[in-house]
Amino acid sequence: MIIKCLKGGRVVDPANKIDEEKDIYFGDGKILNFSDQSDSKDIEIIDVREKIIFPGLIDLRTHLKYITSEKGENISSLTKAASAGGYTTIMLMPDTDSRADNPGAIQYVQDRINNEALINVLVCGCLTKDASGEKLAPLGSFREINVKAISDCPQSIQDNQIFAKGVEYASMFNLPVIDLPRDFSLSSHGVAHDGPVALKMGLGGYPRIAEELFVQRAISVANSLGTRIHLSSISSSGSVDMIREAKKRNVSISADVTPHHLFLTEKSISEYNPNFKTSPPLREEKDRKSLINGLFDGTIDSISSAHQPYEEHIKNVEYDLSPPGVIGIQTALSASYECLKDEKNFSWLKLISFLSTNAAKILSLDIPSFESGKNANIVIFDPHKKWSFNKSTSLSNASNCPFDNFQFNGRIEKTFMNGHLIFDSN
Structural domain of residue 155, as residue ranges? Predict the structure, then answer.
């Protein structure tokens, strides 16, 4: 057995509340106990002094329209980009060309993943057939094929009765429902936050209340039925306030936020650049600050990339006509670190919890850690290395990134999956 030792790094392991300098040993794809290797002479030493070492990241929400695309994003390019972002597990939303609303379609996607993916890719099943919001999908059969969550994302079920029945049905199989809260009757023509920037630019508004009404719906359903609901891509300060109060009442609600909503505001769209068009939209500075506060006080549980790739000819069109969504799987950690590192409550334990540990808890996955016997899914991060995301550094086949040419402070240096080196920035 070839044994490797990451020597001299700062180890961050939220599951065990470890944030200290120590050595990590691994071999045969597993984390090894130091005491069992201390006398071994056949060890490959990797110097990681002044680097941050943490378990592989987990993404709750990743989109991939075409599983086998030759020109656009596909399983291979997606998972390469994810590995460069420090991810070793991602959750694929059900809006693929083979809609994940039945066991056969899900199995097809899983088979492609098994053949082409560089990392662990989970498939999220549809809550309703064809994500149409009308008839429930056969949720009972999903659990048998390793589906970990249910969602119609990026759609949101508009019928309250269907939503409540779907949540109750999913709970019978211990499957959390992931909801992207949006009332379309209040935002059907909305392409930007309903504020002064959209008004000045002549763009249709997507108001906070369109999100907040469905956040309250999710809280009420979760409370009434005693079931789990996860709210994805929270963007409004009002949503944060409602989730905070619900958690005080022990409602089984959880939430995530994207790096771009933590980092950017509505001012970013002022030049009609479609790479800043997202759903929900980028909002005002008070919303951005509320999201950050919500992360640090435990109201918001995790950070998800909401990676949504488009080919250039589809995305780079007139702002009104461009579909919402940006890529972010490769930049999520760097953008989150850049945004949060100067906050008074920042710690590496919290950041990795937001990007890994808490997502595992929401999906009832094995909690990533450096305990002996765990899979050797390991990330080495250099906080001193500057880098820019652009076409030369991107591993994605898409280019619709809001952080294009932005210089980050801190970069993923290496990612290991089951002990194998799958990304090396050098």
Answer: 59-362
